[in-house]
Amino acid sequence: MGEAQQFVANIDWATPTWDLFIILFFVVAGLLYGLSLGRDRIVVILVSIYMAMAVATTAPYIGELNAQIGIQNVFVFQISAFLVAFIALFLLLSRSALLKTIAVGDAQGSWWQVLVFSILHVGLLVSITLSFLPPEAAEGLSPLTRQMFASEGARFGWIIAPIILMVLLRTDNKKKFKYDM
User: Fold this and answer.
1) Percent of the chain clearing pLDDT 70 (strictly above)
2) Which of 36, 79, 97, 181 is 20 to 30 Å from 122 at the Cα level?
3) CA dihedral 74, 77, 80, 82 (to 10 degrees)
4) What φ, ψ does residue 165 adopt, rounded to 5°?
5) At what angle do helices 39-58 and 152-168 cross, to 10 degrees?
């Protein structure tokens, strides 16, 4: 908590830093973006993020492809591959049976579920994106940002927390599939 107070006290609005951009993105996107989507669509986005992360981190020959394209920094190519895979997977999955499978009753969900899923979604997205940065670039971030998003423990927390929440908030699908006989 002391680091958060120190971070807020040291904000210089005249010369914003990447840390300020990351924190503002986290707060604004977590609140506005998530509330506009609804719980079920955020869950589809979370699944898309996990799949894109798997693709971007395990894609073979990514270094060779990066060299052929001519991008000097591999992390730029990895972030780009992750974002392209994420967007493509989200578009495919949102039109698939996945959304129909997870949608139960009110697709929007209660406001607190949407808010929590939204915060976890944006935190996961920021943490994964920062994980592609080289260590020296991550060292340039403030201690608060590193602790919240870029450390190994934080990354693990952002990856596991949405899964735990999905398990805890699962709904009884048996009610959804009643057949009249």
Assistant:
1) 69
2) 97
3) -70
4) -65, -40
5) 140
pLDDT of residue 161: 94
Ramachandran sector of residue 61 (left: φ over 0; alpha: ψ -120 to 50; beta: rest):
left
Taking the C-alpha atoms of residue 138 and residue 32, their distance in angstroms, rounded to an integer, is 27
Q: Which two tokens stand for residue 145?
A: 């940002």
Phi, psi of 35 (to 5 degrees): -65, -25
Encode 12-46 in three state secondary structure. CCCCCCHHHHHHHHHHHHHHHHHHHHCHHHHHHHH
In the chain, count H helices and then E strands.
Answer: 12, 0
| CB burial readout 57-68, b (16+ within 10 A) else e | eeeeeeeeebee
Q: Which pair of tokens denotes residue 178? A: 């009643």
**Which tokens sit at 50?**
């996990």
For residue 52, which of 150, 156, 115, 129 has the smallest C-alpha distance? 129
pLDDT digits (tens, 9 = 90+) for 31-55: 777 677 777 788 888 889 999 999 8
Long-range contacts of 150-153 (CB under 8 A, 24+ apart): none
Handedness of CA 116, 22, 51, 161 (dihedral sign): negative
